Amino acid sequence: MDFSDLQPVERNALDDLATVIGEPVQRVDRGQMFDESIPARVTIEEGAVRALAVWGFWIDRLPESIGNFGDLIELYVHDNRLAELPESIGGLARLEVLDLGHNQDLASLPDSIGALRNLRFLYASDNRLDSLPESLSNLRSLIYLNLTDNRFTSLPEWIGQLAGLIELRLYDNQLDRLPDSIGELENLREMHIQNNQLVLLPESIGELNSLRRLGLRDNWLEAVPESTGRLARLVDLDLRRNLLEVVPDCLAGLPEIERLDLRWNRIGVLPGWMDRLEERGCVVYM
Prior knowledge:
The protein has 286 residues and is mainly beta. It has 2 helices and 13 strands. It has 2 domains: 115 residues, Leucine-rich repeat, LRR (right-handed beta-alpha superhelix) (Alpha-Beta Horseshoe), CATH 3.80.10; 113 residues, Leucine-rich repeat, LRR (right-handed beta-alpha superhelix) (Alpha-Beta Horseshoe).
């Protein structure tokens, strides 16, 4: 494979990677980046590696030289057996997409991840994470964070500093609460927290002025905060399989709600305003 247009430091890093995975890395066009018939692939533009995909090799480490791809924009290392990431990953200053999903042995992220100031998408589902390095609070460009199917029991207060977040996925963890700072995520449009152990939500949830979809299925909620009624842009609220005994009256005034799912709770008498909600076009599941 011809990599003669790369700088020596990147050529050497590709050699190191090939040694770890036991196969050569192949150069592909941008349209082939997700061609699973090619085991390990890179795209190169203007003499630099821009995208790198190495998944399904069951490798337990990445070489330290991975940090030498200074112009890398997308890195896909999901479906391996990575137990840790090298600190050198912080050298990927231009990285925008990092996919760490389905490694299963990955129990922590390095502090250096906070140096990825251009990161926009972080996928870390199906691992063993139970905490996040505080340096991650520096990722102000992050718009998508997926931490599903891990071991989180709580989130740090600094999560509210990720003000650029648009979508937050936290389902299939062991969360029993959310920090008050969650209300500082003013650009958040979707939050999915189903299948946790939430017993209450903070009042600050009503400050999520951009929120459109809120997934709370399969938790232990007996009520929702009054402030939930201030979610003026909410269109989809999923409260299935909680411990609600009454329909919260604060939901009556949600102006844009289109779908309200209350199935598999303990609700007896329905409030009169439910009919008016349906007359406005909201689909209500009971």
